Each structure stands twice: as C-alpha cells, then as structure tokens.
Amino acid sequence: MDPAQIIRIKELLPTSLGSDEVKEQIAADILRRSIFSARMEDLRHLAVIRDVCAGVVAGEINQATARERLLASLARMGHSPLDGGGIANPASIRRLDLIIDTHRQMAASVANMAAETPATLEEWPAHELVRFVGRSMPRADWPQRWQSAAEAVGYEGVARHTARMVALKSSPIWQALGDGAGGFRDTLGNPYPPFAFNSGLSWADVSRDEAIELGLEWQTSASATVPAPSLSPSESDIADAVSRLGFDEDIFSDLA
Amino acid sequence: MRINVAYQSNYVVDAVMGALRPESRAEVYSVAGRAVMNHVQRHIRSYMHAKHHTAESLLARPTGHYEKGAAAITMTADSNGAEVRIPIPGLKRAWEDVQIRPGPGKDFLTLPKAAIAYGRKVAEVRALGWKVFRPAAQGSHMTQKSPRRYSEYQNIYLGYKDDEAPTLLYTLVDGVVQRRDPSLMPSQGEIAATGWDAIWKHIQKAVAKARQGDLK
C-alpha cells in the first residue's frame, strides 16, 4: 500500500480534546488510523487535512500549496494565523507544518514497514535513527531518549558499542522510544518515526554487514516475519527454479 | 517522482524470474526496490543540507523541501516489479529540463524575492497580515514615489505590513524552465544497476545457500 492510500483510508476523528488529552484518552491504535487535530471538530476541515496530506506524500503538491488549502479551509471557519495563541491556534503556520510533516512521515514509515519482506529484512535487518530535517533549535536529548528506551527494553536488539542510534527492526526499542521511555511526554506512541512532535529524525536502513559490524546478533529469521528454515520460501523457490531450468550452479558461484 | 525499478535484461535472470511463483518474484523485486530506495535516499541525504542557496540569499528559513522528502521515500513491490516513490516535487529535473507553467486559473508563477515570500503562496502571505498588490493592477504609491518607469513594476507583487514601506515580495513570470541538475539524483543507469545488482546477488545467495545444504 502506498503512503497516499494509507492516509486516504484513515477515518476522520473530530475531537474537542487538546493534544495531551487526546493522547491520554484515545487508544494509540485508534489515533494511528485517524485524521485528527487537537480541538478540531469540523469534519470538512479534517477531510481537507486528509486530502492535502495525501497529496503531499504522493509528491503531487508541495508544502506551500498544502498550507494554502488548509488556510482557505480554516478561513471559512473564521480562523486566521493572526489570531495568536501559538500552536494552539489551528491556523498557525507552525501547526499547519506540524500536521503535514507528521502525517507525511507517519504514512511513509507505515508504508515502508508494510513493504518489508523476509528478504529485505535479511538484507537490511536494522534501522538507524538519523536526522533528516534540520531545526533551528534541535532537541539535544535524543541520546538520553535512546539510552532510556534501550534500558527499558534491556538493550534487546540494540547496538551497544556505538554512539549511533542503531537497532534491529524487530527490537522493542522502537515502541519504547515512541512511548517516551524515560518520561518524555512529547512522543506520539508509535513504534516508527516521527517518534516525537515535530521531530526531524527518521529511519535509514542498515545493511546486514554493517549490523554485524556494529555487534548486532540475530538468527536468520529472527528479524523476519517468517519462522524456521534458513532458506526462506522465496529463496527455496529460486533454488528450485535454477535446478528445474538446468542452469549450472557455477554461473552463480562468484558469491558462494 | 516515481521510479519503476527495472533491471538489464539477462537470459539467466529472466528465466529464473519467469519460473518463480508470483509471491517469490515479488520478494525478489522487494529487495531490488529497497536497494534502489536506500541508494536514492543516501544520494539525496548527501546534498540536502547544502541546497538552501535561495533561502540563504533571502535570509529566509529553509523549507526542508529535500530533507522532508528524503525522509519519506517509500517503496512497494509486487510480482511485476518495484516502484520507488520520492515525494519531492520538481525532482524530475535531475534527468531533464522541466518547464513549469502556471496552474489552472493562474496567469503567473510567483518567484519569491523576500524572506516572507520564500516557500509561501501569496494567499499565505496575505493571511499573515501583509497587504499584497500588483502596481499595474492598482497603481501604487511605490510607483508614485519611485523615479523608475511604471512598466518595471508591472510584473511584480509588492507588499507591506502595518505602516512599513512597500517592499518587493515576488516577481511574476509566465513560466520558468528549470535546467537539468544531474546532481539531484543518481543517474538512471546507476539506479538500474543498483536494482540489477540486488536481484543478482539475491539469486546468487539463494543458490549458494541451497548448495550448502541449508535447506534441511
């Protein structure tokens, strides 16, 4: 499923709750499947949010066009960026960017998780959390967040002897990070980026060789979704096909 | 921008791919797609923080156009192939000149000339409290005060806020050609080679594993 589809199938969730209350009172699973915005009860506007975010993540419109459409929708409701109130103002530019950025990154993360196969997990078994988007005042506490999350899960699947934030894709650290292990309250409750509001950090794949160099250990299928044999079903299919086709295996031997 | 991940034709790979069950073929394509996705992402990450010339020249805050897009690159694969999606509008100019025309119902493109205008549409600047106007349309106090010829001000948007003097916000053009900039993306040949390499190695690995008698 592509990221635009992931956004388009989300339900609209009007709410009178503020962001902290939303997080406390509505299950994370429902939030993941919903388009909502703190204290936004207007369904038509939520539909506009869904539409523009899908357009942005599909690369069909840029962020300026997305904000323009959101501002037009909000103007219809009487909201203006000039109303003040900081990010609590539904028409503040910062809030509009936050909504677009969050939905774009969430949809991309979910799409890439859904696109994983046993073969991709074997080739790239780990993620590194790295900064993509620069901030004028970046959070300085990511190492502490990482450390707290790693401790919370007993370093399961976490690269220990490096300053880099690398862990197996199957590691529970990702959920711990999203849950704000260590007492961080600005997180989104998801095991994928963005892990915190307005975070510029996201995932980069880490190859098998690099994961081994970083001291990560896993069984062939431990990080994959398929159990048991060391040849995955598709690898087994490939080996059968080569045999059936009568190819000399030496054709493939330069890797063996 | 979407990239269909293709590979150079090769008798052996074609035959093996053709003999696979659809789900196995999809998995092989997933490896190729992921390899291309990671390659493209690494490439964009290598320059993304250095592409802020316009923002810097206007003393504006960068929009994060490339950074946000790079973080949101995705891939899907099925039994017919893989597709990598890069949500960065305009990236196509990595491979060819791109002509941009005004959208439906618009007469001009706006090119930002002030920090407040950078990365913003006119409607947003207006929503931020700026009075934005075209001298040609309204006749302006700017033209009255300036010794420059009136025609020089026809294709611009001026703007002011509160009691400040009007300032140039945008120039208006009926189209622009963005010249090809190959540094923005790996070449199509490089992308095809990355996909091909991933497929070939995946097949090699499966054969090697089977030969080692792992399938027990």
Characterise this structure.
The complex is a heterodimer of chains A (256) and B (216). By secondary structure, chain A is mainly alpha-helical. Chain A has eleven helices and five strands; from the N terminus they run αβααβααααβαβαβαα. In chain A, the strands form two sheets. In chain A, strands 4-3-5 form a three-stranded antiparallel sheet. The longest helix of chain A has 22 residues, at 93-114. Chain A starts with a helix and ends in an 11-residue tail after the last helix. With 216 residues, chain B is an alpha+beta fold. Chain B has two domains: 2-93 and 183-211, no CATH class; 109-174, no CATH class. Helix content of chain B is 40%, strand content 18%. Chain B has helices at residues 11-19, 22-47, 53-57, 65-71, 122-127, 135-138, 141-145, 188-211; strands at 2-5, 74-78, 81-85, 98-100, 109-112, 131-133, 156-160, 167-173, 176-178. In chain B, the strands form three sheets. Chain B has a four-stranded antiparallel sheet. In chain B, strands 1-3-2 form a three-stranded antiparallel sheet. In chain B, strand 2 and strand 3 form a beta hairpin. The model of chain B is unreliable at 137-145 (pLDDT under 50).
Furnish the topology, listing elements before pairings:
The complex is a heterodimer of chains A (256) and B (216).
Chain A: H1 3-8, E1 11-12, H2 19-25, H3 28-32, E2 34-35, H4 43-57, H5 63-76, H6 93-114, H7 118-123, E3 126-131, H8 142-152, E4 166-168, H9 173-179, E5 201-206, H10 208-213, H11 233-245
Parallel strand pairs in A: 1-2
Antiparallel strand pairs in A: 3-4, 3-5
Chain B: E1 2-5, H1 11-19, H2 22-47, H3 53-57, H4 65-71, E2 74-78, E3 81-85, E4 98-100, E5 109-112, H5 122-127, E6 131-133, H6 135-138, H7 141-145, E7 156-160, E8 167-173, E9 176-178, H8 188-211
Antiparallel strand pairs in B: 1-3, 2-3, 4-9, 5-8, 6-7, 7-8
